UniProtKB/TrEMBL annotation:
Source species: Stenotrophomonas humi
Taxonomic lineage from the root: Bacteria, Pseudomonadati, Pseudomonadota, Gammaproteobacteria, Lysobacterales
Keywords for the protein's UniProt record, in alphabetical order: Signal
One Pfam family named in its UniProt record: Gcw_chp
Top-rank taxon: Bacteria
Protein name: Uncharacterized protein
Keyword Signal: yes
Record's signal peptide: 1-23
NCBIfam families attached to this UniProt entry: gcw_chp
Amino acid sequence: MHNKRLVAVACAALLSVPFAAWAQDSEEESTSPFSATFAVTTDYVFRGVSQTDNGPAFQAGATYTAPFGVYATVWGSNVDFGEGGPNFEVDYNIGWSKDLSDSWNIDLGVNRYTYTNASSGYGDIDYNEYLAKVTWNGPVTVSGLLGYANDYSNSGAKQTYSALEASYDIGETGFSIGASAGYTTIKEEANEWPRRADYYDGSISVSKAFGPATATLGYYDTFGSDASLLRRESDTYKPGVVFTVSVDVP
C-alpha cells in the first residue's frame, strides 16, 4: 500500500495553502503581483504525516495574484514514499481570496497534486483537492479549512479534510505561536483498501521573524485508532519535532 495514499497532501504553509500576494498601484509606489517563497526543513510534514520518510526537504513556490483576488500558485518539494515511489511533488493551485471586512477573509481554490520520478510499476497518484478557508483576523488569527477530493490519489476514494488553525503574534518581538487540529476521512471503493480510514492530526509551533526570513520550530502528531494502526506500518505517522527556515520574496 502506497504511503501517500493514506494522507492528503498540499502547501501549507503547512497546508498547501497559496502564498498570497496582491497588486496595488499608486503614484508613490507599486507592489508587484508576483511573490515567491523558499524553505528548507528537517521534515516535510503535511497534516501530521511525513512526506519525506522523516528526512529533510527543500521547497519553493511562486504566486501571481490579480488585483481582484484571483491567484495562481506553483509549489514544489522533494518527497520520499518508499522504494519505487516518486521523488518530487509539484502542486498547482488556482483560487480566489476576498476580504469580507477588516476582520474576515474567504479563500476558495482547487489544488492539483502531481508526483514525478516514480518507477513504472508504482502507478499514477496525481489528484485534485477542492479547498475552502475562512479566516478571522483579531487579537488571535483563527482559520477554518475544509478540503475535498473526489478521486483521492487517483484511487477512486473520497477524501475529506477539516481543520482549525490559530496563531498569535507576541507584540513587537517578531515571535508568534501557532496550533492546529485536523481530521481526515477516506472512503474507498477499491478492494485493496480498508473500507474507511479516519484519523486526527495536531501541531503546536513557535516562529520568529528575521526580516523576510522566518524560523519555525514545531511539534506534529497523528492520533486516533486508525492512526495507531497506521503507525505500525510506517514511522511517517509518528510524532516528531520539525525545524523550518523560510524566506519570502515580495
